[in-house]
Amino acid sequence: MNAETTLTGQAGPLKRVTLWVRDIDASLRVYHDALGLQVVEDKSLAGPLIARQIGLAEARLRIVHLAAGGLEHGWIGLYAISDTQPAPMQSLPRPDGFPRYGQAAVVLSVQGLAAIVARLRAMPGVQFITEPTEYRKTTPDDSTPAGIYRETIFFDPDGIPVSLMEYTPL
Q1: How far apart are CA 23 and CA 139, in angstroms?
Q2: Measured between alpha carbons, how far is 162 from 40 in angstroms, rounded to an integer?
Q3: Dihedral angle over CA of 103, 107, 112, 117, nearest 10
Q4: CA separation for the pair 39, 29 (Å, rounded)
Q5: Hey, is 57 helix, strand or coil?
Q6: Which residues pair with residue 167 across a beta bridge?
Q7: Does domain 16-85 sit in CATH 3.10.180.10?
Q8: CA-closest candidate to residue 32, choices 64, 73, 74
Q9: pTM of the model as a whole
Q10: pLDDT class of 2 with cuts at 50, 70, 90
Q11: What angle (nearest 5°) sits at the alpha carbon of residue 27, between those of residues 97 and 104?
C-alpha cells in the first residue's frame, strides 16, 4: 500500500494508551507530579458489567485519564483492577532489560527535561535505563526539524519504559 491509497474506515489519531498498573497513586506521582500531565478523569467502576469487558465475572476498576494541556488525543490511561473473580490479576515480571521484542514504550515530548529528571530520581520505583543524552540534528527532513534533541528513558513503577524527548531549535 502506498501513501496515495485512501482507506475507508481508517484509524487515527491515537486517542489513548492504556497502562495496567498495580498502584495508581504511585503511577500518578510519575505521570502527574513529575511529568505534569493533567488529570482529565478519575472514576471507579465495579460489578459484572465492567468485569465482562475484561474477561472476568467480578471486578473493580479505577480509571485515571491524563492529558497534556487539555488535549483530546494522546491521553495516558492508568487502569487498576482489584476485587476480581474468579482470580486476581497477575503481574508480569519486571523487565530485566530494554528493549525486548513485543515491548512497547510511552514516548512523550517534554520541556524542562533536567527538572523532570530530578523529580523522577527522587521517586521510589523509577529506574533509569538511559541517562539524558543529547544529539544534534543538522539537516531537517519531512518529519523532524533540525535542532538539539535530548532524551532519557526510564522504567515507571510497573516496569513500563517511558522515553522523554526534549527539542530545542538550532
Answers
A1: 43
A2: 20
A3: -10
A4: 12
A5: coil
A6: 149
A7: yes
A8: 64
A9: 0.87
A10: low
A11: 40
